[in-house]
Amino acid sequence: MELYMSLAIGVLFTVGVYLVLSKSLLRIILGTSFLTHGVHLLLLTMSRLKTGAAPLLGEKADAYVDPLPQALILTSIVISFGVTSFFFVLAYKAYQKLGTDDMEQLRGSDDE
Amino acid sequence: MLLLHFAIILPFLFAFIGPLLQKALPRVHTGWLMLPAPVFLFIYMMSLIPVNRERGPLQGKLSWMPSLGVDFDVYADGLGLLFALIITGIGSLVVLYSIYYLDKNKEKLTHFYVYLMLFMGAMLGLVLSDNAMVLYGFWELTSISSFLLIAFWHKRERSRYGALKSMVITVFGGLAMFAGFLLLYTVTGTFSIREWIAEAPSMANDALFLPAMLLVLLGAFTKSAQFPFHIWLPDAMEAPTPVSAYLHSATMVKAGIYLVARMSPVFAGQQAWLWLVSGFGVATLIYGSYRAMKQTDLKALLAFSTISQLGLVMSLFGLGSAAAFYTGTEQALFYSKATMAAVFHLINHAIFKGALFMTAGIVDHETGTRDIRRLGGLMAVMPISFTIAVIGAFSMAGIPPFNGFLSKEMFFTSVLNIREAELLGLHAWGALIPVIAWVASVFTFVYSMLFVFRTFGGKKSFEKLEKKPHEAPLGMLLPPVTLASLAIVFGLFPNLLSYSLIEPAMAAVHPNLLEPGKQFMVSIHLWHGFTAELYMTAGVVALGIVLFLLHRRTAVLHAPLFERVSLNRVYDSGLKLLDRFSGSVTKLYMTGSIRQYLIYIFVFIIAALGATLVSEGAVQLDTSGFADMSFYEAVIIIALILSAIAVPFANSRLMAIILTGVSGYMVTLFFVIFRAPDLALTQMIVETVSVALFLLCFYHLPKLKKEVVKLRFKLWNLLIAVGVGTVMTLVALSASGGSSFESISHYFLENSYTLAGGKNVVNVILVDFRGFDTMLEIVVLGIASYGIYALIRVKLKGDQEEGAIET
């Protein structure tokens, strides 16, 4: 399973990077969410999959999966959600003000 | 903390309180307020001479940064005192001179004197410090204060150019010297110059010894305007004349000479040291004297003359280091005469060059020009200045009975002596040095005569001048008169200096030459019989007079040398080239396109991670602990991969968003499968809200167009993307392949209920075991929402004008 998961993670990263490298801001934002998914699955995969029950002690199982990465991923999901939302609104405002979402045209001024 | 420490700090104190005093006494010329400092210091330094003779050098320690070995240790031996006397003595005279030279109502006097006092303190600290790091600190302070003084009239473009140039060159050398000191520190483990000298014999075989020597020399050569670093000195003549007299004749340009003399006991005995110091000195001597003949501006002439005289002193210190090759005292003393000549000429040069600069300043002040083509016939109207100029210039040319004659004779003696040093294989080249020295002396004679007779001799033609010339006020004449009198006194009674100044300084340069308790024999006579040196001087005078008379008629003598090629041009175009080169390099990679920057980042990730993975052999497919795959999981994986891959091909906004949402929900399903209920819940909610947000935002964004880009663009992107994907796959595999140690999670699983009273371990970790993370992630969400609110609500100026670009 880990092998296939690693492949899936690779695909998510590939798509994310490909989108981030494109010109339109819209695609770039989509790309970031793919990168986020890739990272989360990577965190999960690294800690071994399906080694036991869900980390709920009421289950009374012999073995549980590792709860620590899950806590980390949960934190990460929330943070990336916050960042992504901000990024959306930023893109929206930028388009409203500048009238383009082509990153090649959003190069800033020469005298920076 | 000695009085000597206080003496070094005193000028800084004056620099600090001077402006306050000026505020309190607005009627008084600032110079009068500052004058007590150098005068007091001069008297104090004089009083140290007998102390040094009787009880040895005055030493004082003051702890500053003991953990780094940097302490403010002072050490006043003959060499330090000699320089301190020059600094304070000429300093007093220059302050006096500047009181009459600078107009109280036209100039920013407080600035001027603050810079001057800073410089004086830095220079004193430089020559009296025993700690190399402290010396370096003062060294840079002289560079900075010199920079400020050269650009005193900062509204003139030339002043700023000269100041910048001197700054660039001297700070470059200063940093090289700093590196040299650090190398010496790594060899010896101390910054004390005393201890370096003590350890010099054991250092000679160290691999870092030669680099340290070269770097220290680079510092000395740049500061003392040795060829080819001399180019800053003529441009520094844009400074007010008192500054030129003080900094660029007597003190700062001698800092490099001081360094060579001071480090001589450490490095002497190395062939490279002797060759470099003498070689550069002689080259500078001939070059400077040749160029000085061709100048038409008085101060430029004096600047090149200073360059050449500094080369002379430098070469004498180099020749004097030959003494270190001989163990026999007899021979060693023979060569140490060069050091004697160097020290003597150092004093003489400070005296006559100061006088000459002040004379040039007087001429400038009284006529409004410094161009010798427009001057002439001032002898009748300015007799006193003329007398001073004659004494100074004849001393510079080396004509009896002035002091310059004596040091010139000793210089000839030294260059003739060096031919006999068989040890150094100087037989072939040794004969060349006297010849060069002699020719340079002829040039020196010529420009000295030019200085006097083009300015003061010839016909009166005052209609070309801006002002009607007349003799300068007495106060302005007093300092150069003092110096000129000294030139005569030391010329007639040179032995006044012998055992008071020259011998102790020689002892500091050659500390190991004599047995303890012995002294160098220093006896300088005005007349020492018909010797080779005397004939050489006679030849110099004869040929010099001939050349001087031919000067106007022979273009070779006064036309500028090589109009096309000059070191200034090299420097200027070098700076331009650097500027342009760095500009174009920056333009090359900083294009402003975010895609390019991302490409750099991703390529670096691929290269760094990929190389590490390969070189460490990290990818080990140990599938033994892997879970197996069921049918459901296969379906979900395929769905995830397909939806992800389809996104770049989507033609409409909605399609792309839905596909992204699909992959998000697939991730949710993975969380379900991999026993992570809380993750699944959160991911589902977040994904839903995200998709909603996407739809909300994209409704306002432009339609997703097919990107019309070149195929190459897409291929590059694809290549990099696949690269990153591959690397991450490998990372994932190698990370999950083999765990090197046990997870800490069993602690959470065991204690979640007993310690924290919760059965949902993930939640207990989030709010109990690792609650800080959660608190700050709440803060992140809060900040994001405030940010979004601000973005939407806050009206920036120009918001009303739709489409206006903010700048």
Which terms summarize this structure?
heterodimer, A: 112 residues, mainly alpha, Helix Hairpins, 65% helix, B: 807 residues, two-stranded antiparallel sheet, 1% strand, elongated
Q: What is the domain tally of chain A?
A: 1
Q: Can you give the mean pLDDT of chain B? A: 84
Main β-sheet of chain A, in a few words?
A: none
How would you classify the helix and strand content of chain A by structural class? mainly alpha
CATH fold category name of chain A: Helix Hairpins
3D architecture notes:
- The complex is a heterodimer of chains A (112) and B (807).
- Chain A has 112 residues and is an all-alpha fold.
- Chain A has one domain: Orthogonal Bundle (Helix Hairpins).
- Chain A has 3 helices and no strands.
- Chain A starts with a helix and ends in a 14-residue tail after the last helix.
- The model of chain A has no long low-confidence stretch (mean pLDDT 85).
- Chain B is mainly α and 807 residues long.
- Chain B is elongated and about 115 Å long.
- The two termini of chain B are 57 Å apart.
- Chain B contains 32 helices and 2 strands.
Structure summary:
Chain A: InterPro entries: CPA3_antiporter_subunitC, NUOK/Mnh_C1-like. Chain A has 112 residues and is mainly α.
